[in-house]
Amino acid sequence: MHVFVTGASGWIGSAVVDDLLAAGHEVTGLARSDAAAERLEARGARVRRGDLDDTGSLRAGADPADAVIHLANKHDWSDPAASNRAERDAVQVLGDTLAGSGRPLLVASGVAGLATGRPGTEADPSPFHGPDAPRGGSESLALEFVERGVRTVMLRFAPTVHGVDDHGFLAVLADTARRSGVSGYPADGTNRWAAVHRSDAARMVTLGLQAAPAGTRLHAVAEDGVPTREIAEALGRSLDLPVRPVPAQDVAAQWGWIGGFFGMDLAATSATTRELLGWTPSGPTLVEDIAAGAYR
């Protein structure tokens, strides 16, 4: 299968490209820089130059492909509205390009906001709709294309997709701890973050491409929920820093933009995904990765 991948040189995307190639698929990755293009070519993938603002490059990449995996996101926390617009426009263009073909469109999303007081499940619909919603309401938009003959599959990733060289949420928390001299946790630290190792997440994407029916929501979740206090304690041990609670009113001052996420309960399950795909996560746990020095 010839697969067009956006975000192909990113943290999750590069692992997905490797897994797709190992499974025998051909890959064309979207690259916005010479360095990204070189990394993709070194992996054995073809390159389509462009970015999320260049809808022509998205259309040109998707049109000849047998499937599309959309993993790219601007993640511009200084201008989330721009990120949301770009995400919605990208999904619209990719969906329009694949409409009526029955080809797969796998779209990255997350587990935030799915449930209150319990872990989110694959049965929970996204609460985000419309262009002004987080991610531009792209999950709801993408699923509308099922009625237009697209095999849409949602890829909901845990808030931490962890591993060596991670530069995501956990890396930001580790950097904050180093700068402040304290590994903190919000309030009493009982709120939880779902977690998955990068290699397990990549494998789930490949399995989902091959087997998930139209309209499926998949959860890339290996651990349903790691309490934020445990995360802070693991970082404290790894970085040799004291561990302390941060009162709710001081969370924003301590962590800035990421404080809102670190204070949320982002637990989720993946029982349905595992049963459907025969997916069994086998990588290190989050605390094991931290202990092994992944964030040191």
From TrEMBL:
Residues 3-211 form the NAD-dependent epimerase/dehydratase domain. GO terms for cellular component: cytoplasm. GO terms for molecular function: aldehyde dehydrogenase (NAD+) activity. Residues 116-138 are annotated as: Disordered. This is Oxidoreductase.
